[in-house]
Amino acid sequence: MIRYKCTVSYLGKNYAGWQTQKNGNSIQELIEKNIERITGVRTPITASGRTDAGVSARGQVFHFDSEKDMDGRKWVSAINVFLPDDIHVLKVEKVPWRFHARHCVRWKKYTYRVNDGPYDVFTKDIAYQCAIPLDDAKMHEAAQYLIGKHDFSALNSSPLSEYPDQVRTVESIEIVRHGHMIEMTFQAKGFLRYMVRMMSAAIIEAGKGKIQPTDVKELLESCDKSHSKRNAPACGLTLEEVNYYDVMAMSEEAIIREYILKDETDNLPEKEEHIRNRVFPMQWIVTTRRNNTVLGEAVFDETGIHIHVNKEEDIPIVETLYEDIHVWLSENGYDPETRITADSEIR
Is 177 left (phi over 0), alpha (psi -120 to 50) or beta? Predict the structure, then answer.
């Protein structure tokens, strides 16, 4: 079985969202039907996340598994032949089985577009047409209160019963104006339902002068889901890009992966650069596979791969990774018999 990673763009106007549903046509359903036409087998696909009805994507990512061994360019051509012209697969590539379009996300980037000039028929499907001129300075000020690690309960529609932990980290919000078009770009590892649209609505309200930028801070800190019902129109939102971290090895119990922003670690940019460019020493974090509990660190240098766990009793869990580590070494051009050690040390 081969795992394929795919990047797709689409306009959301004519669809009931990404996910297959009983009532309404979805992008996922159309793509799955076309892959089945090619393979003759029903093939489910897994995306980086769901986009709602009317939301577009420039770089949505999904993966699927198939026994059909075909070049990426042929997959692109074959899938696109049957797709409508507002959905287009941009790239298909073979990836290791460890890759998962949803679980391996480092960060996602969404852009919300607002046109505060005359109504524009050419951008109506990708930008909210706002009849009120917006104050850029107030929008910038309001956005600053949303950057960082916060409880976003007041700015999303995910029920607390389903998602009791609604703390998320927004890495950055950039607001850029091009004439009458304002682009608000949000980057984070993940977002809750309607979170980007509700943040956008709050920033736009500040730009209109209907609320003060400090009101956005008070709204966020209230953690009150009944406090705000504002949700910016779906047409303005586009999923721009999904970025993934590298995985060295995976077993049923544990995983060795890159450090990412949410991990407590020093020198993150250097660690990312070393792994990206395959420069020794490479430092990886070792966690449990299911709940992301940190077990320790793996260091790959000229002498081998040295796994240091926090508790001696976790060594057997780490040893379940050895077989896949040897596979990863071979896949990446290293000696598959590279020495692997595991020990415990007091941190």
Answer: beta
Helices 136-144 and 213-222: crossing angle, nearest 10°?
Answer: 30
Beta-carbon contacts of residue 271 (< 8 Å; ≥ 6 apart): 258, 259, 265, 282, 283
Strands 87-95 and 340-344: unpaired
Contact between 59 and 241 (Cβ < 8 Å)? yes
Closest CA to 8 of 77, 69, 72, 92: 92
Q: Which of 4, 5, 242, 250 is nearest to 106 (CA)?
A: 242
| Given 52, 125, 135, 151, the catalytic residue | 52
Q: For 244-300, what is each residue's pLDDT tens digit?
A: 999 999 999 999 999 998 898 999 999 999 999 999 999 999 999 988 899 999 999
pLDDT of the residue at 22? 76
Average per-residue pLDDT for the chain: 95
3-state helix, strand, coil in the chain (%, to 5): 25, 30, 40
297-332, pLDDT tens digit by residue? Answer: 999 999 999 999 999 999 999 999 999 999 999 999
Cβ pair 14, 70 in contact under 8 A: no
Question: Model-level pTM?
Answer: 0.93
pLDDT > 90? residue 94: yes
Phi, psi (degrees; rounded to nearest 5) at 178: -120, 90
> How many Å apart are CA 195 and CA 239, to the nearest integer?
13
202 alpha carbon, distance to own chain's centre: 23
Q: Check if 65 is active-site.
A: no
* pLDDT of res. 228: 64
Question: Which among 118, 114, 109 is positioned nearest to 127, based on CA atoms?
Answer: 114
Going by DSSP bridges, is the β-strand pair 294-301/304-309 parallel, antiparallel, or unpaired?
Answer: antiparallel
Which phi and psi (to 5°) does residue 34 adopt? -75, -35
Confidence class of residue 129 from pLDDT cuts 50, 70 and 90? very high
Cα–Cα distance, 168 to 189 (Å, whole number): 8
